[in-house]
Amino acid sequence: MADMEAQVAEALRSELQRQAEAGETLIVTEVEGGLTVYGLVDLEALAMAAVGAVAGGP
Fold first, then answer.
1. In angstroms, rounded to a whole number, what is the distance separating the alpha carbons of residues 49 and 31?
2. What is the distance between the alpha carbons of residues 21 and 32, in angstroms, rounded to a whole number?
3. Distance separating alpha carbons of residues 2 and 10, to the nearest angstrom
């Protein structure tokens, strides 16, 4: 189970960083044990990243 959680966490982290790099409305900073996120998050894209991780997608 921990492996699935790690995959989902990495997918969410990657998607948030992708969104931050793609626009000017989101700032993501890595901190010990997590992320600090400021700004507008595309929840549909974030949800798709989580679903893809669970389903074994890219």
1. 21
2. 21
3. 12
Residue whose entry in the numeric block shows the structure tokens 């991780």: 53
Burial of 53 (0-12, 13-18, 19+ CB in 10 A): buried
Q: Cα 8–11–15 angle (5° rounding)?
A: 140
The residue with tokens 């409305």 is: 25
- pTM of the complete model: 0.87
CA distance 20 to 50: 17
10-58 pLDDT tens trace: 999 999 999 999 998 999 999 998 999 999 999 999 999 999 998 875 5
